[in-house]
Amino acid sequence: MVQPTRQIVLKRFIDEAPSEDDFEVVERELPDLRDGQFLVRNVLVSVDPGTRARLSGKPSYIPPLKLGDVVGAFSVGEIIESRHPDYAEGEIVSLADGWSEHVISKGRGFIRRITDRRLPLSAWLGVLGVSGMTAWFGLNRVAGLSEGQTVVVTSAAGAVGSAAGQIARLKGCRVIGVAGGPEKCGWLRDAAGFDHAVDYKNTDDVGKAVAEAAPDGVDILFDNVGNRMIDQVIPSMNLNGTIVVSGQIAAYNDDDPPGLMNTRAFITHRLKMQGLVVFDDLPNWSEAEKSMADSVVAGDIVYRDEISDGLESVPRAFAGLFRGENRGRRLARLRPDPFKAEADK
């Protein structure tokens, strides 16, 4: 039968910081399932800063949205009807089909079965999802993380940054986080176990503060901010150091982002700078998910969720990311978590 659902669509292209008025909640009817399809009722949807890259109408590393398109996002939900031979009703899956209460899927593209019930579903949109996997593969594959290194993580209190710092700490590295405000910096030190936290909002010279926190230099910079931040840390990089470009939250709203000035160090210090799109590593996610889940269950990795209620809460939560309001991974809950009772046992 036809399934009514609500979705969030792009109402107008965004040139600067996003606002709630850039989006619209619409009600639509999904068609009857065809053979090879299944219907998912979403439980949680993600609110990601990286979504901003698709909202200006301009090309990015993925195609931009058109006006009226459902805004892309990750979600976890329960299959409530299936005409697909490989997916059964009652299975819990993670998808990347957008801010919508229901999704019809053909079982193609990004889809993960969720079978580990030790943690609530929110973990699969954060520390066990794209955020955690970006941190894992950015450090282990791109940077070649090894014991005893000094690692600087920017936007360190965010979902990707906090995971990256804790992965490095568990590897036996010295970890320095850059974040905004005393509350975030305190959480990094006291809860996440960072060795030092630089509060960029209350520091006149971030580069100098990083240099003081890393007197023996920096081996890996894991950056989520953009070129202005990278440029400030480059003078502290050690010989053969690596810069991992994970995200650019400071540049998403900038039509003319700055270039790098301290490029001589790439020659004198033989630096390497490389970005990543974590879906390139999808064939190897299972091993990384298991390792991260074990660490969370053991209490060796902590994370913070900020979960708002209802689909209509998403635009405000998204806009708040660019005002620095978040204190953890932002999600929206659309219905109760069917795994919560078991996870809490």
SSE order and pairing:
Blueprint: E1 3-10, E2 23-30, E3 38-46, E4 75-82, E5 92-95, E6 102-105, E7 111-113, H1 130-142, E8 150-154, H2 159-170, E9 174-179, H3 182-190, E10 196-199, H4 206-213, E11 218-223, H5 227-233, E12 237-245, H6 264-268, E13 272-275, H7 285-297, E14 305-309, H8 314-321, E15 329-333, H9 340-343
Parallel strand pairs: 8-9, 8-11, 9-10, 11-12, 12-13, 14-15
Antiparallel strand pairs: 1-2, 3-4, 3-6, 3-15, 4-5, 5-7
Helix pairs in contact: 1-2, 1-7, 4-5
According to CATH, what is the class of the largest domain? Alpha Beta
Count structural domains.
Answer: 2
What's the number of helices? 9
Q: If you average the pLDDT, what whole number results?
A: 92
Shape: globular
Query: Roughly how many Å apart are the termini?
Result: 37 Å
CATH architecture of the largest domain: Alpha-Beta Complex
Radius of gyration: 20 Å
Strand proportion, as a percent range, falls in 25-35%
Succession of helices and strands = EEEEEEEHEHEHEHEHEHEHEHEH
- The count of β-strands is 15
- In this structure, how is the largest beta sheet organized? 7 strands, mixed
How much helix is in the residues? 10-25%
Protein structure class: alpha/beta
CATH topology call of the largest domain: Quinone Oxidoreductase, Chain A, domain 1
The CATH homology group name of the largest domain: Medium-chain alcohol dehydrogenases, catalytic domain
Low-pLDDT runs: 341-345
